[in-house]
Amino acid sequence: MINKEKRTQKQVSDISGISEVTLRAKVKELTEKLKIKNKSVLKK
Fold this sequence. Notes:
Layout: H1 9-16, H2 20-33
């Protein structure tokens, strides 16, 4: 979410030039590294 504008995984992957699968893998990797257990905190 940028400037409180919601984006779908498809939109983010298209803009960034990566697949949705890669995007999900990167989010998972980052949440594990940052020890975030509840991804809903990322939506705030």
